[in-house]
Amino acid sequence: MTAALAGIRVLDVGGTIATGYCGKLFADHGAEVVDVEPPHGAATRALAPFNDRASAPDNSALHAYLSANKRSVSLDVRSPEGRGLFLALARNADVVLDASVGGDPLSLADLGAVAPRVVFSRVTWFGQNGPYAGFTGTDSVCHALIGMVRSIGPEEGPPLLPSGYQAQIVGGLTAYIGTLGHVIAAELGNRTAACQLDTSIYEANMCFTEVGAVGAFNTGVVAPRMGVNRFPPTFPLGIYPCRDGWIGVTALTPSQWASFCALLDLPDLAAVPAYQTTLGRLADAAVLEPIFKRKVAEQSAADLFHRGQSMRIPLALVPTMEQLFDVDQYVARGAFGTISHPLQGNMTAPLTPFKLYRTPALPGGVAPKFGADTRASLAAVGVDETAFERLCRANVVAEG
Questions:
Q1: Class of the 9-207+352-393 domain?
Q2: 251: closest CA among 234, 239, 263?
Q3: CA 185 from chain center: how many Å?
Q4: pLDDT tens digits, residue range 129-172?
């Protein structure tokens, strides 16, 4: 069937994880997406993990994941000649993704002149204005600023920071939602002029702690960090090692606590009056946790999970990285697919986090080599072979 976003044209000059993921969601649903990379390659090409089957700039597995189903054009947009070529490539584009804050060689007016209904979608750490605009951010900085990490980790010492690029992925997803809304508005005739969209990765991630932020603002109370697997007011709430894996435990209501104690053969704890509330259990966490941790460690994670499900206890199997691809619900839902790269070979990676049933996303895809589509794309806008060679010598483009 026709892909949901077939016929939509997207150009990404940002080269970040956030713009890359936003563009990936467009590409996976059938849009024509072009990564317009500088002559040395997009910034994501320098990010781990790396695949030793290939060499730079084509050895980043992360970039390959983000660029599946896209094209790669190498073009120095910041040079006057490269900027002119980019505007030629952008003719009648629906979306241009960018990651710069002010002072950019591209403007909405220039883009609108060649693409009358374009969405100039900028995805940056802190947005185009405000007290943090222009600051350099990181995923850890965003997590810290929204209050997400302050309460996580040992009671003594610094908090624990999540690894990876979750904040940027959330920023890219948020930008996709807003950008697609404007694209649909243009398709329906509700928007007839070019527009600019501003997405702040920091603000996009505030959804994770918005209640806590409001509460702290209104009360002035700053909750102390209570330690690993301590998430007030619920206890137990955390992830614990089993004999052969890990199990996620949540016991909120009195009946869930009683069932959890029955699951672990701890009837005496279930009957303690103080433990009928989560705060009562939390107050005695130092006593309770070693008891049920020993019980959990003796048993199989899968056995605990299935028995706990039958007792209506909110438990979750927590797979290791080795187990991840074999989790039954992920297999049944088709959560992972194969991404191919001409130099890196095949890799297994997560697919889009939502599903359209009549026009599903592509179940994987092929990632291009750096600059693989430069020559053909520039030829399509009138750049002949002689001019192309001259541009390569001038370092305006790289052939790939």
A1: alpha beta
A2: 234
A3: 25
A4: 999 998 999 999 999 988 888 888 898 888 888 889 999 999 99
